[in-house]
Design goal:
- The chain starts with 7 loop residues before the first helix and ends in a 7-residue tail after the last strand.
- Strand 13 and strand 14 form a beta hairpin.
- The protein folds into 2 domains: 198 residues, no CATH class; 322 residues, Alkaline Phosphatase, subunit A (3-Layer(aba) Sandwich), CATH 3.40.720.10.
- Helices cover 43% and strands 12% of the residues.
- It is an alpha/beta fold.
- The strands form 4 sheets. The chain has an 8-stranded mixed β-sheet, sandwiched between helices. Strands 5-6 form a two-stranded antiparallel sheet.
């Protein structure tokens, strides 16, 4: 005799309909925003989308409709859909593989910055209440063979419905997805399920897990006199449009404006999130090659270390995303410096603390050849922009102090963000000052490039992480700023005036790997002078194992 309760198929169907309708409020809002719900045909499109989502979810749950797996699977989908729905509704973000990687790699401090008490009603309605209902509903237990037949039948019916709806509504569905690509990333929770699958299978799409070394022939010239010290500052969430140096109306970079810096005004990032951009900008492959790579390769830091240079990564963020795994690295996570750190987070000034001791701890034989010091900022990481600047630098007021940016006016959001750029300006000026103070020991230079930009409410978009193909320029255009001491200019025979003349030309993260190798005069076959932003302005440029004159350019 069968145990009392409803059939597993009915519970799976109810959960699928719930998820396809109520959990997809961000999708319905977007359909309205792009004008697709203003005609009867648009409502038919919405109905077709809801049916497709429900059928796909029912097919998935049919495969899991067993005694020990059905309810846990439904509860997981409800939790994923509830959290995803809240963030898509609140910040207008989309869920794709890069976003899943960001979630997996975030730390407690970053996660806390996204939490808000206003999440509670959403999670209560979308997660807690339906989960309780699912757990309380008794499900009829069938003989395993009968249950297998029911599961197979449910899967087949769902697949038939899915195919029938797609074929019947193919033209409007295809047109909507082609013209509004963001819709495919709003189909909750299928977007998250698909993204997790992409992330989980990524290693399988590459040939093995062994790291492919690059630049094994790399050599840095032996230093005569003072060794070079190149400080690479990796910015966080800094968009080029809000830098005074790049023509922004507000004076967000007053200290850098007093330094002899050179700022490229058309620099493009490799991705729209730290997880995507950071490994890509340190790769030799460029954005297109990195996205389609079949192997995992060594990166810029590996090549610099192979060349005999001392390399050190200092992190004031949630980690280096694997970039610094094979070089010396340290984090500020546990620091408690007065005035700089509170509640488990530090302002970027903490990166300048104890630098002399950190450098002195590097191997002496490498230090005498040259030092590359990487500083990974907290920068303008959102949504808590107001926490990224000290009180003394809050020049633009009133600023948004809520993690729910939609509660604030767009001007308040921009004010808080611009104050964070002021803090970066102060930090970079302090780093340049530190380098100037060590000019008897090193020939110093600084290169500041951000990982990605940010949306501040334009077109109702906040934060970052949109798929690259549809992301607005503010998420992809980043600052690229260089400072070179006179002794460094002489060492690498760099014509700074030439660089200044070229600041309006496009550069990108694709050029970062080769530009750094060029600035450190590393000779290796992996170096490409055509992708070195500074090569046209140097009298000599490193190529495969030798130094070759750059035609038509002499050093100043």
């Amino acid at each position: 005799m069968n145990a009392p309760g409803i059939r597993a198929a009915w519970l799976a169907a109810a959960a699928s309909i719930w998820l396809a309708t109520l959990a997809n409020l961000p999708l319905w809002r977007e359909l309205e925003a792009v004008g697709l719900l203003r005609t009867p045909g648009g409502w038919l499109l919405a109905g077709a989308l809801a049916t497709v989502i429900a059928a796909a979810l029912f097919a998935l749950l049919s495969l899991l409709a067993w005694r020990w797996t059905l309810k846990p699977a439904i509860c997981i989908l409800l939790a994923v859909a509830g959290a995803g729905g809240y963030f898509m509704w609140t910040y207008h973000v989309l869920v794709n593989a890069d976003m899943v990687v960001n979630v997996l790699q975030t730390d407690a401090a970053e996660a806390a910055g996204l939490l808000d008490v206003r999440m509670l009603p959403a999670l209560l309605l979308l997660v807690l209440l339906p989960v309780v209902a699912v757990l309380k509903v008794p499900v009829r237990r069938l003989h395993p063979l009968r249950q297998a037949a029911h599961n197979a039948g449910g899967f087949a019916v769902a697949l038939l419905v899915l195919v029938a709806v797609v074929l019947a509504c193919y033209q409007p569905l295809a047109s909507a997805m082609r013209n509004h690509k963001q819709l495919r990333y709003l189909m909750n929770p299928l977007n998250a399920v698909y993204a997790v699958g992409v992330v989980a299978t990524a290693p399988l799409r590459r040939n093995g897990s062994q790291l492919e070394p690059i630049g094994l022939d790399a050599v840095a010239p032996a230093a005569s006199g003072r060794p070079p010290l190149l400080m690479l500052v990796v910015g966080e969430t800094a968009r080029a449009a809000n830098f005074g140096l790049n023509g922004y109306a507000r004076p967000t970079t007053p200290r850098l404006a007093r330094e002899a810096v050179v700022s490229f005004t058309d620099a493009t990032s490799c991705g729209t999130s730290t997880a995507a951009s950071l490994p890509c900008m340190f790769s030799h492959l460029g954005r297109a090659g990195y996205g389609t790579r079949r192997h995992d390769y060594g990166n810029l830091l590996d090549v610099l270390q192979q060349a005999g240079l001392a390399v050190l990564w200092l992190d004031n963020q949630s980690g280096c995303k694997g970039v610094c795994d094979r070089v010396p690295h340290a984090s500020t996570v546990n620091r408690t410096d007065d005035g700089l750190c509170s509640d488990g987070e530090c302002l970027d000034g903490v990166l300048l603390a104890d630098l002399d001791q950190r450098i002195a701890a590097l191997p002496a034989q490498r230090r005498t050849r040259g030092v590359v010091l990487v500083m990974h900022q907290i920068g303008s990481h959102g949504p808590a922009y107001h926490r990224r600047s000290p009180a003394a630098l809050k020049q633009f007021l009133p600023e948004c102090t809520s993690n729910n940016l939609q509660e604030c006016s767009q001007q308040e959001v921009v004010n808080a963000y611009d104050n964070s750029i002021l803090a970066t300006d102060q930090f970079l000026a302090g780093a340049i000052g530190w380098l100037k103070g060590r000019q008897q020991a090193f020939d110093g230079a600084l290169l500041y490039v951000s990982d990605h930009g940010e949306s501040l409410g334009e077109n109702r978009l906040y934060l970052h992480g949109l798929p690259y193909a549809i992301a607005p320029d503010v998420q992809k255009k980043v600052p690229w700023i260089g400072w070179f001491s006179p002794s460094y200019v002489q060492r690498v025979q760099l014509d700074v005036g030439c660089v200044r003349e070229r600041t309006g030309r496009p550069v990108s993260h694709d050029d970062y790997f080769h530009s750094v190798l060029g600035l450190m005069q590393v000779r290796t076959r992996v170096y490409d002078a055509a992708r070195d932003a500074y090569a046209p302005c140097r009298a000599i440029a490193p190529e495969a194992g030798k130094l070759v004159a750059t035609p038509g350019r002499a050093a100043s």
